[in-house]
Amino acid sequence: MANWFDSLERDLQSPLAVRRLGSGWFSGFFALLLSTTGLCLVMALRWPDWFATPELAALHAWGGLRPLVHALLIGGYALALLSLLLRTRKAIGATALIVALLATLLGGAEVQPRETHDWGVFFGVDFFAVNMVATGLMFAPIERLFPHRAQQRLFRQEWREDLFYYLISSMMVQLITFLALAPSSFINANTAGLAGVRAMIAGQPWLLQFLEVVLLTDFVQYWFHRAFHRVPFLWGFHAVHHSARSMDWLAGARMHFFEIIALRGVTSLPLLTFGFSPSVMQAYIGFVYIYSSLLHANLRGDFNHLGRIVATPRFHHWHHAIEEVAVDKNFAIHFPFLDRLFGTHHLPDGAWPTGYGVPEQVPQGYRAQFLYPFRRKRDAAL
């Protein structure tokens, strides 16, 4: 099994010269994408109590979902067979074919829900599929068209780790949300006296609330982010995020499980405490998902004028830079004026970092990186 995954990884990471049009690489890649998406949706349809995200109930109720699943699997089969015919290396096409076959054996587009014991716990398999495909289709093409580093491949070094981070944060969305919202829930339950303030804030125009949310969360995240750089124990968690040596839309997913909980908890605390409208907060969550991917994306463009107002990829790339002059700079997520105000702004005209990462040796692999913050001091002392 390990050899199979190694072959698949090597095939996906093939040099550009051997994955040109007609080589079977593109048909294999899209076959794998379609088949995997179809499998995730079939699992959510078959075991909704375990693998369906309640927030995606509208998707599951949509009459076009099953025809979509059918189209995904048919497309996966067809492209997998085409890849097997065209390509000398068979790993991508064969894997896509196996995934599509598994989805079909589970019931395919006609799958019926199975009764399961409802433990009250679910894993967001459908959320992973929808989120991954939507974000990937949004950013992967524009990274190919307008890359900052043209030589960087879609399946660059460390892509498998970052994809696994994406999977974990999506599948564990229920647990992450519960833990992140626990402080806000406690405060709201014990601050009935703020009901008037909450009603006033919720009564504001929707757009004004959204702008207030973006500004408020950026202020909170600035100091949260800065603390995770300056406090040694907290840096152990954040170093995992900064250990990425390549920047693209997927690199933003590399974040320690506990940092995700802390970040979302701190961010949601003022929003829920002050009583912003739920639709505003939902819109902000969608916005920040996309914006975070944009900031990490491998996109060229200096955006010198725009960059004075809002954060751009170049602004955030400098935050990840390996250069010493850029250490502990550019903490803001949305508005660079916060960094200028507090003396942490660094954005030299027209210049980009020469590399990314951290000077310390962060281990590879999800498990090792999960344990890294707790072992960091001990390992340094050895």
Automatic annotation (TrEMBL):
Membrane-crossing residue ranges in chain numbering: 21-47, 67-86, 91-109, 121-142, 163-186, 282-299
Keywords from the named record: Lipid metabolism, Membrane, Oxidoreductase, Transmembrane, Transmembrane helix
Domain of life: Bacteria
Membrane topology designation: Multi-pass membrane protein
Annotated Pfam families: FA_hydroxylase
Record domain Fatty acid hydroxylase: where: 213-344
A GO molecular-function annotation: glyceryl-ether monooxygenase activity
GO BP: any one term: membrane lipid metabolic process
Keyword Membrane: yes
Listed InterPro entries: Fatty_acid_hydroxylase (IPR006694), Sterol_desaturase/TMEM195 (IPR051689)
Localization terms from the record: Endomembrane system
Chief localisation class: membrane
One GO term describing the cellular component: membrane
Protein name, UniProt field: Sterol desaturase family protein
